[in-house]
C-alpha cells in the first residue's frame, strides 16, 4: 500500500466530515494503523482538526471491528462450516479464549495480525456483542489516544525541523507507526496477563 496515498486521501476529505469518516472506515480495512498514524500526522500539521480526526478514526476502527464480528456471526449460520470446525481442539480453544475474553480483545488492539481471526471467532462463537463492543471501544480510544499524543508531542517538532523535507519525515513516521505495534504488542499482552495457550489445554 502506498502510505502517501493514505495521507493525501485524508487531507483531501478534511473539509467534508461525513466523507472523511466514510473514507477512514474504508481505509481502515486496508490498515487501521496507517489511518490512525496518518490522521495524527495531518492534525500535527494543522491540515485536519483534532476532534474530527479523533472521532473519524475511532468510528472507523469500531465499525471495522464490528463488521468482522458480524461476518463471523454470519458464517456461523453455515451448517457445513460449523461441522468443519466442530473439533474438540477448537472448542477447547473457545473455552480458553472465553475465560480471558476481555484481556485478549484488549491486547489485539496493540497486536497486528491478531484482530482478524480474533474478531471473526468472537462472532462465530457468539461471544456477547455488547461486551465485545465495549472492550474494543476502550482499546480503540487507548490506542488512538496514545498514537495522537506521541505524534503531536514528538512528531510535530520533528517534521517542522525538516522544513521542505517534512513529507519524507511523515512517510518515515507512518512506516514506524506500522512497525512499532509488532514490538510493543507482545509487551502489552504480557502486562495485561495474556499469554499463549498452555500445552495442557491444547492436548487435553
Automatic annotation (TrEMBL):
It is a multi-pass membrane protein. The keyword Cell membrane applies. The chain crosses the membrane at residues 12-30, 50-74, 131-155, 167-189. Keywords: Cell membrane, Membrane, Transmembrane, Transmembrane helix. InterPro entries: DedA_domain, VTT_dom. Residues 47-149 form the VTT domain. This is VTT domain-containing protein. It comes from Iodidimonas gelatinilytica.
Amino acid at each position: 500500500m502506498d502510505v502517501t496515498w493514505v495521507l493525501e486521501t485524508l487531507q483531501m476529505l478534511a473539509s467534508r466530515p461525513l466523507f472523511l469518516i466514510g473514507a477512514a472506515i474504508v481505509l481502515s480495512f486496508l490498515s487501521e494503523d496507517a489511518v490512525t498514524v496518518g490522521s495524527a500526522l495531518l492534525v500535527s500539521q494543522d491540515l485536519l482538526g483534532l476532534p474530527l480526526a479523533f472521532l473519524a478514526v475511532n468510528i472507523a476502527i469500531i465499525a471495522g471491528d464490528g463488521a468482522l464480528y458480524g461476518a463471523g456471526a454470519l458464517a456461523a449460520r453455515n451448517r457445513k462450516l460449523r461441522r468443519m470446525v466442530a473439533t474438540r481442539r477448537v472448542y477447547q480453544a473457545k473455552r480458553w479464549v472465553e475465560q480471558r475474553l476481555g484481556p485478549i480483545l484488549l491486547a489485539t488492539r496493540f497486536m497486528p495480525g491478531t484482530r482478524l481471526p480474533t474478531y471473526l471467532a468472537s462472532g462465530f462463537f457468539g461471544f456477547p456483542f455488547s461486551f465485545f463492543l465495549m472492550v474494543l471501544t476502550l482499546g480503540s480510544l487507548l490506542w488512538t489516544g496514545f498514537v495522537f499524543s506521541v505524534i503531536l508531542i514528538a512528531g510535530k517538532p520533528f517534521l517542522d525541523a525538516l522544513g521542505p523535507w517534512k513529507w519524507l519525515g511523515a512517510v518515515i513516521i507512518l512506516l514506524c507507526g506500522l512497525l512499532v505495534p509488532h514490538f510493543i504488542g507482545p509487551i502489552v499482552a504480557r502486562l495485561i496477563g495474556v499469554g499463549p495457550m498452555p500445552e495442557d489445554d491444547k492436548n487435553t
